[in-house]
UniProtKB/TrEMBL annotation:
One Pfam family, short name: Glyco_transf_61
Protein name (database record): Glycosyltransferase 61 catalytic domain-containing protein
Any one of the GO CC terms: Golgi membrane
Keywords: Glycoprotein, Glycosyltransferase, Golgi apparatus, Membrane, Transferase, Transmembrane, Transmembrane helix
Protein's organism: Oryza glumipatula
Domain Glycosyltransferase 61 catalytic: 370-493
Classification via InterPro entries: Glyco_transf_61_cat, Glycosyltransferase_61
Localization in the cell: Golgi apparatus membrane
Lipid bilayer topology: Single-pass type II membrane protein
Main location: Golgi
Sequence intervals crossing the membrane: 20-38
Length: 588
């Protein structure tokens, strides 16, 4: 063999080896590129072995969003954007959509928790129009479709959802706020719509919470039926979760006198759907049941026991909630009509009237009783939605169209004198030298208005009068509840009668005033300013150890120390209090 031939073959082998390495690099780059493509596009249908519907479900999942739309009236509705093509993938989506439309399956459209079933192949403009009608109407109008079911079971989910049009721009999705939808147990943060499960899963939380010192509260989801004639809420659940509780839905737990005026409501879970009450009317919104019995009729209790806790409980629904009331008094509904309309778009259900008519109302969710914190106070750390007392006072000003959210300031250039409202009591704890107090306030620099709060007064009129003032003065009593209409930064002065009542005065009005953003001054009268000095000898225990009398109970305290004395203020001693109230309004 010639040396030249051996050299040629070696050269050829080296050339082939280079070509092989180059081919290996090319193939490797292709495989790496393909791997990167597949890993960055988990929704890609390349090499998919799934059927067309599964491919579509995979493709649309990254595009699921929650939109929140708010109208000018402040009403809101949540939209579940279910099928949106990703950018650059419209052709694939169209092909998959066509494949799904050819299947013989049924599609469920969920709107305000009412199920509307659409036969496959008929998914068209009619279906979209039907879905829009359900979203626009209340859950009541959709009731016949549910009641027509053979066993009257309500098919619902825990969220408010719908399917939006594919042409809805994705950019707008990111601008929408997300609202909590599902109530949670105390201490558990509220879920957003994206976190809420839309299946018919069983809610396995305890039906009721009895741990709060003010109120027992029940909160449950699913197939909920309210049998009004027996004052009973029944939820159909897994047979293993059967339970029954009795609740008086009013936040004066432990007060036997008060709670004796409150209708008892039974809350029970059953696994027997056929034996549960049959629906006569279905609602697509949650229910919140409570009593307006108890101590209502007194403005302090109207707000501390009902309206403030009601706001804390239902504000999350943005009007999409059905109020169910026990122990209804028509005058109470008339007086607070504007506030109730702001809290719910639906006329309230009178439990007694519904019971007399044999009605069974069905809901996807129910809360029995109200979430109450301290007197006239919402504690942000305890509120499921992070609400606080200033949120409630803003709600009041908005609902009653009260214009002022700041007081008149001294030296603001307007030349106006700050306005002081003095609440005059008509029967007990009278301010006997009212005229002298008014003159002293005017001498200090106030414009003074005197008003006697009355239970029959229109809440709008009272609110507008109080909101026009910069300071409020009154003896301890329910009339001081009107401070909630004052603009933030105003001053409230409470005159505390004799008898060791400082603690209750501060609890009922002092702490709430501070929580509302008001300046608070507490004036505690001396024995010489109380009419008790004319009823009891100087060495009586009522003067030497008044707090020792508290052990005789609140009834004794109210009769003797509150309703049993009138007040004559020492104007000289009181003048610095008026000066401090005026100083609080100095320009800042």
């Amino acid at each position: 063999m010639k040396p030249g031939g051996s050299s040629g073959r070696l050269h050829a082998l080296r050339f082939e080896s280079q070509r092989f390495r180059l081919l290996t690099i090319v193939v490797g780059c292709f495989l790496i590129s393909l791997t990167f493509l597949l890993s960055s596009r988990p929704d890609a249908t390349v090499f998919s072995t799934l059927n067309p519907r599964e491919s579509l479900e995979d493709a649309r999942m990254p595009a699921m969003k929650m939109l929140h739309r708010s109208s000018s009236a402040g009403l809101t509705r949540d939209f579940h954007v279910d099928i949106l093509p990703q950018q650059g993938d419209r052709d694939t989506h169209a092909h998959l959509q066509q494949s799904v439309d050819q299947t013989a399956e049924k599609t469920e459209w969920v709107k305000d928790t009412v199920i509307i079933q659409e036969v496959a192949g008929e998914r068209s403009e009619e279906a979209e129009e039907a879905a829009e009608r359900v979203a626009a109407d209340s859950g009541d109008e959709a009731a016949p479709a549910v009641v027509a079911d053979e066993d009257n079971a309500v098919k619902t989910t825990a969220t408010v959802a719908t399917t939006a049009r594919p042409d809805q721009p994705l950019v707008e999705e990111k601008k929408k706020q997300q609202l909590p939808v599902k109530l949670q147990d105390a201490g558990e943060p509220a879920r957003t719509p994206e976190q809420t499960v839309t299946s018919h899963s069983v809610d396995r939380r305890p039906l009721c919470d009895f741990s709060d010192f003010r109120t027992d509260i029940c909160d449950f989801s699913g197939d909920v039926r309210m049998a009004a004639n027996t004052s009973e809420f029944v939820v159909v659940v897994d047979p293993a979760a059967v339970a029954s509780h009795k609740v008086r839905p009013y936040p004066r737990k432990g007060d036997a006198t008060c709670m004796g005026r409150v209708t008892e409501i039974t809350v029970r879970a059953t696994g027997d759907a056929a034996g549960a009450p049959r629906c006569t009317r279905a609602h697509g919104v949650p229910a919140v049941a409570f009593s307006i019995g108890g101590y209502t009729g007194n403005i302090f209790h109207d707000f501390s026991d009902v309206i403030v806790p009601l706001y804390n409980t239902v504000q999350r629904y943005r009007g999409g909630v059905q109020l169910v009331m026990a122990n209804v008094a028509s005058w109470w509904l008339v007086k607070y009509d504007k506030l109730l309309r702001e809290l719910s778009r639906h006329a309230p259900i009178d439990l007694a009237k519904a019971g007399a008519a044999g009605e069974v109302h069905c809901f996807p969710h129910a809360v029995v009783s109200l979430r109450a914190h301290r007197e006239l106070i919402i504690e942000r750390e305890r509120s499921l939605d992070g609400l606080a007392t200033p949120d409630f006072t803003r709600f009041l000003r908005r609902a009653l169209s009260l214009p002022r959210d700041a007081p008149t300031r001294l030296g603001d250039g307007t030349g106006r004198r700050p306005r002081l409202l003095v609440i005059s009591r008509g029967r007990t704890r009278l301010l006997l030298n009212l005229d002298a107090v008014v003159r002293a306030a005017e001498e200090v620099g106030f414009e003074v208005v005197v008003n006697e709060s009355d239970v029959g007064n229109s809440i709008e009129q009272v609110g507008k009068l109080i909101n026009s003032c910069d300071a409020l003065l009154g003896v301890h009593g329910a009339g001081l509840t009107n401070m909630m209409f004052l603009p933030p930064g105003a001053t409230m002065v409470q005159v505390v009668p004799w008898g060791g009542l400082q603690w209750i005065a501060r609890m009922d009005y002092g702490e709430p005033a501070a929580a509302m953003g008001l300046n608070y001054i507490q004036y505690e009268i001396a024995v010489a300013e109380s009419s008790l000095k004319d009823k009891y000898p100087a060495g009586d225990e009522i003067f030497t150890n008044p707090t020792g009398l508290h052990k005789r109970g609140f009834a004794f305290m109210k009769q003797t120390l509150m309703d049993g004395q009138d007040i004559t203020i020492d104007v000289t001693r009181f003048r610095p209090v008026l000066q401090q109230a005026l100083h609080n309004l100095a320009a800042k």
